[in-house]
Specification:
homodimer, alpha+beta, globular, DNA-binding
DNA sequence: CTTCCTGCAAAAGTTTTGCATTAAC
DNA sequence: GTTAATGCAAAACTTTTGCAGGAAG
């Protein structure tokens, strides 16, 4: 269980891109930086508004970064796609989602619950013939301002 | 913890619609029946192809049924929205999702893990000022045919 | 006879693509 | 120089809406 220092992030991303013959340009760096700053999943609109380039480039760069395992697509409730840095580059975490306004917060849960989940997930996975199964736990409710 | 008999389903839906002055038409019944038969979340395309009416009516009916708590929007990975019957009308369950081909299966997990999760979720929810928090646990991996 | 539902077609909103240009290696 | 990234505009795709006609209560 390794935690990565923030300084490592950009060189890790650069390395991953280089490995598949792609470049870590300013736009892509801005995109990764925006996701890092946010500490929560961002919508494509929010990413574009973070001055990460024109819409079409943002979509293309998200696709590339998703492909090399740097960002992952997170879907909440309806509306448009959201993206975050993958857990290898941050930490394993979960989402607390307001079903009314769509607000998303990152949360972590106690390690003992995590291990119980992991064990159970492994067992279920074997039974169903699925491989490399990870879990995704989201908490969905009503936030204070929507209550 | 109540399990509802299949026979109840349509009258329950009818009742809920009636309560808000809406009708349980043939199209809506076909839609609910399609979701019941599927035993997994269906995409809007799949629902339309299940002869539940023209696209526009399907979307409208899904909105109505979502509004009265009969169906819920489930989002998996990218692509288009998927819908399923709400857990009040079926049973609490989780999804086993193939990250490669997008296939989704319903699964249930041991009750002791469920209760551990519920307790933890309640605690986290209180701490964050969220109310009425439920959990959503998905298992994401590679299915046998994509391995 | 009033309210709701349907169906078509058109509009709106999100994401992808073509292509010429620019930048990185 | 060769390959990849950018930026614009146009296209594609999912979802929503307007409106006239039909069905349900």
């Amino acid at each position: 269980m390794m935690r990565r220092m923030p300084t490592d992030l950009h060189s890790t991303v650069a390395e991953r891109l280089r490995r598949v013959g792609q470049r870590y340009t300013e736009q892509r760096e801005a995109l990764v930086a925006a996701l890092e700053r946010a500490r929560k999943p961002l919508s494509t609109l929010e990413i574009v508004q973070a001055r990460t380039g024109p819409q079409s480039s943002v979509y293309r760069n998200l696709a590339v970064l998703e492909h090399v395992g740097v960002v992952r697509r997170v879907v909440t409730e309806g509306e448009f796609a959201r993206f975050e840095l993958t857990e290898e580059l941050t930490e394993h975490h979960h989402h607390l989602i307001c079903s009314n306004c769509g607000k998303v917060e990152d949360v972590t849960i106690p390690t003992d619950l995590e291990s119980t989940m992991d064990r159970t997930v492994d067992r279920l996975a074997k039974r169903s013939g699925f491989a490399k199964v990870r879990h995704r736990l989201d908490l969905i409710g009503t936030c204070r301002s929507c209550a």
